[in-house]
Amino acid sequence: MNREGRGATTPITTGTPAPTTFTGNHALELEEGLLFEIGRTEVTGVDIEDAGDFTSRLGGHERKLSLDLPGLAEPEAMRHYVRLSRQNYGIDSGLFPLGSCTMKHNPRLNEKMARLPGFADVHPLQPASTVQGALGVIKELSRWLLSLTGMQAVAFTPKAGAHGELCGMMAIKAAHIANGQKRDIVLVPESAHGTNPATAALIGYQVKSIPARADGTVDVESVKAALSPQVAALMLTNPNTCGLFERDVVEIADAVHAAGAYFYADGANFNAILGKVKVGELGVDAMHINLHKTFSTPHGGGGPGAGPVVLSAALAPFAPVPAVVTDGESLRLVEEEGEAGADQALGRMSAFHGQMGMFVRALSWMLSHGADGMQQASEDAVLSANYIRACLKDVMSVPYGERPAMHEALFDDAWLEGTGLSTLDIAKALIDEGYHPMTVYFPLVVHGAMLIEPTESESKASLDLFIGALRDLAFAAKAGEKERFLGAPHYAPRRRLDETRAARAPVLRWTRPPLAEAAE
């Protein structure tokens, strides 16, 4: 038996190496080349008739040469993408411990609802009279979000979190302009998500950093000292990126408002306080909500996402269009700023009204949980995070151990001192154990950070297995078993990549390998 009482597997350094196979496959672990390597230009899974003679409308800008793109027959195309999917890791494969991105179970009920023809087949240019059901979903979702946050208005246009930040900050800028004020500074804590300062800078603000206290929270006095008539807003994440609740948030909000500025809250961590705290009562003026995180549907792979923004009474008039309003017994979209109900709207942020599929999934999750179920989800998320921290703090170091965690457990790399190993080595070895690594090296205020968010979706059994894997890695690291880590991952389809080189000198164009050219 191994250290955690589970049946031990064959150590990496012993045993007979697996023989090389002709195909490169290892049983059900199938090797799959790039489409450029296995495809043929003369093959396609779809028959397209020749266009024949026609008059181009491109004014001489049409392509002169063949595309020369590789293709596959239909069965080959299906196998290609299925094989690639088998090399991926997702929430349906196992626990997804990313600490910066809530990756919870997505109930299939959500998918069934989102695929109903009345939602899946609607077109954004249909007359409002033909999409009353879809507009009704948006209206009902709005009611739930406003009830959960204690805010006055919600804008559904934003497609995801960063887009939501942009929306909220644009509303703040529009409010200052309407009041005849020119403010050009935004305060951002040093532990903030990187999108916060990026969003502020994008729309022309100077960013001023606010330091954290030794306990990982924002220093109220530092905020007060930084406030001035030039400050437009404070952008604060609560719970913060260290997994801690900002206990002085009301005092911070009061100081910000007294200076004539607005309080923007990053809602990425709303999963920790859903049904427990109404952010409007904390003094928040704007907050984006990641429907694809807090209200299910993990957002790995780039989407789909949705980042509606809730606004206080002070900012509600500046929400972007379009907006759903009640018109007698029916619903309609306010499409232009200046219309009744959108007199001070900041304008249109995108062509249409957000991501309909995400609206349906989120409302489905809300209705299936109910108010009490959503509150329990937050309680369970916080319980799971504290359970992980309690079970690992004797073998891994906790930077802010004196305070309970919220929805995520944060560790630093102090426990690795003297081992010759780094946070990255632990993350890569975790891949060999069958897990996607936790968030590493973030937040930046913690050296060698390892941030773990189990969410409420995981059972105690799955948490115990994950904890056992990390404890085993910790014991191995402290026992000097460096070969287990420095070459990891050993069992993944690909070994460790040079991530620094990949970021600094990315190869964006495939070229045929020299050996393949010589063989032709």
Automatic annotation (TrEMBL):
Region (Disordered): 1-21
Alphabetical list of InterPro entries matching this protein: Aminotrans_V_dom, GDC-P_C, GDC_P, PyrdxlP-dep_Trfase, PyrdxlP-dep_Trfase_major, PyrdxlP-dep_Trfase_small
GO biological process, one term: glycine decarboxylation via glycine cleavage system
Keywords annotated in UniProt: Oxidoreductase, Pyridoxal phosphate
Transmembrane segments: none
Compositionally biased region (Low complexity): 7-21
Molecular function terms from GO: glycine binding; glycine dehydrogenase (decarboxylating) activity; pyridoxal phosphate binding
Coiled coil start-end: none
Aminotransferase class V domain ranges (all copies): 177-300
Pfam families hit by this protein: Aminotran_5, GcvP2_C
Zinc-finger as UniProt keyword: no
Catalytic activity from the UniProt record: N(6)-[(R)-lipoyl]-L-lysyl-[glycine-cleavage complex H protein] + glycine + H(+) = N(6)-[(R)-S(8)-aminomethyldihydrolipoyl]-L-lysyl-[glycine-cleavage complex H protein] + CO2
EC number, as in UniProt: 1.4.4.2
Span of domain Glycine dehydrogenase C-terminal: 377-473
A GO CC term assigned to this protein in UniProt: cytosol
KW Lipid metabolism (keyword) present: no
Function: The glycine cleavage system catalyzes the degradation of glycine. The P protein binds the alpha-amino group of glycine through its pyridoxal phosphate cofactor; CO(2) is released and the remaining methylamine moiety is then transferred to the lipoamide cofactor of the H protein.
PANTHER family: GLYCINE DEHYDROGENASE (DECARBOXYLATING), MITOCHONDRIAL, GLYCINE DEHYDROGENASE, DECARBOXYLATING
Listed name of the protein: glycine dehydrogenase (aminomethyl-transferring)
